[in-house]
Amino acid sequence: MTDRLDAASAAAGSPATGVPAGPTAAAAGGSRELHAFIAGLPKAELHVHHVGSASPRIVSELAARHPDSKVPTDPEALADYFTFTDFAHFIDVYLSVVDLIRTPEDVRLLTYEVARDLARQQVRYAELTITPFSSTRRGIDERAFMDAIEDARKAAEAEFGTLLRWCFDIPGEAGLEAAEETTRLATDDRIRPEGLVSFGLGGPEIGVPRPQFKPYFDRAIAAGLRSVPHAGETTGPQTVWDALTHLRAERIGHGTSSAQDEKLLAHLAEHRIALEVCPTSNIATRAVRTLDEHPLKEFVKAGVLVTINSDDPPMFGTDLDTEYAVAARLLDLDERGLARLAADAVDASFLDGAGKSRIKDEIDTYTAGWPAP
Ligand SMILES: Nc1ncnc2c1ncn2[C@@H]1O[C@H](CCC(=O)c2cccc(C(=O)O)c2)[C@@H](O)[C@H]1O
Ligand SMILES: [Zn+2]
Is the C or the N end of the chain the one with fewer CB within 10 Å? Predict the structure, then answer.
């Protein structure tokens, strides 16, 4: 059994993608061997946002193209800009980056570079959450938008071997107009992209009750899409219950407050409804005060299926490898425990059976070949 992760042997440093280390990188700690194991471990990422994954290089390049933007062009200044006082502040900053994505070429460049960053971390499969409403309402033609993400998806598969699929989400605070538009783009066969597999709900939860979106999720599910709304990130367990009962959620984005409701934890465990846990995101948006208070351990103790994700990695000064190191420390995992986390994410994904078996076999081969301590 290799040394367990511990702060004393912290070898964290900046995440693999070169963004300045965020609020939990140091806490990730970890032996060099375990970091090396994580770096080579084949993974699947199920909760990561398109615009939220724009690297400092991409953001500064786009900001330089649009001098009217308040987004800094200098990567160092960007690290300060990506420091949030609360969730509402995070959304403001997030939207200022959305404003930078103005042309189909911006969309294609962003998507391809996000795929490159995922491939660099041995991500074999990712479900990337895209908010098409936010881009089409800012003037990007919907057909050109879909062509741009599909071009990038096919290029990523051909050049990096990384499979991308899309989740289209409703920015809930933008209301039912956004819900209608997102549902149309996700269900009209004349426009919906080939890579689309799921349908979500993002943005602030406070003042945005989930039940109002039931008609839209019903239409998306009827069109064959899988339901994966955010819930319980900045509000209590009732939002998670609502996502389950009204939106028929198959997985829950974050679900952090589920730990406050034993019955909810039991329900999630019994029905194998995975939580898409994003530890550093919860700290960076102040949804959770400190890592040691993060409920990840409670979820595992209650038998809930958890997947580890980065949410908006450059904005939170993290990446998926760092999130695995954080999870290893919080759950006291060794290589086998980490491999099981990765396999659980593959199982909870919407990839077809053959694809799941292929990635899980790769995880097993990699782990079996890892030198024993
Ligand atoms: N951790 C997160 N938790 C929740 N969401 C997250 C998280 N990370 C990223 N997002 C994304 O933030 C956006 C929010 C966009 C939004 O609220 C909004 C409000 C009003 C108008 C408009 C507009 O476009 O006109 C947009 C969503 O696209 C969502 O996918
Ligand atoms: Zn999210």
Answer: N
